[in-house]
Design goal:
Arc Repressor Mutant, subunit A; 11 helices; 3 strands; mainly alpha; Four Helix Bundle (Hemerythrin (Met), subunit A); about 210 residues
Amino acid sequence: MSQQTETAYQYVKERILDGTYKPSQKLIEAQLSQDVGVSRNTIKKALLMLSRENLVDLEKNKGATIKSYTMEEVVNYMQIRGVLEGLVAKIATKKITDTDLKALEQIVQQMKKYTEENDFDQYTLLNNEFHEIIYKASENKQAVEMINTIKNQLKRINFRSLLLPGRNQESLQEHIEIYEALKNRNEKAAAEAVEHHVDHVRKVIVQNYQFLQ
């Protein structure tokens, strides 16, 4: 991949994930070419890469559109993610280090602080760090890649779910339970805690689907 293609790919992807580009929004190649400062052919290559990640829909002679998911698709993805997250947590329980556990403890303490302050941006960053430690500890790169693909596809919806009244406090408690299970080296409890967390997110999305779009 050329540097220009990588630049265009990252430019569009970042704006999909942060919600700048909305679901079902049409992407104009000429405008993107001008915005990024690359050729339209380079934009086409970047959009093809994004379509392979299921972030963009490409139709012949119609161009690119930001992927929009039905509620059924979101539910299916969350069910898959729950199974994978449970597997990763179970493996991580055996391999996670005391240093990792200390880092998780500190993250949970910071998450509590940001929950009280309703700082959703910082909470989300810590949330990502928390799960990343578990992913690395599991050493199952293939499962983690699948999880991250699903998380990227649903990133905007997941973030907006934290804005719902009471959801950030629930999320915090779920992360505390995951941490406690890992600290106690309880594989079954760790897998169940993570699966419960993902399943709760799924239920919240279903109940508030219109708001989260």
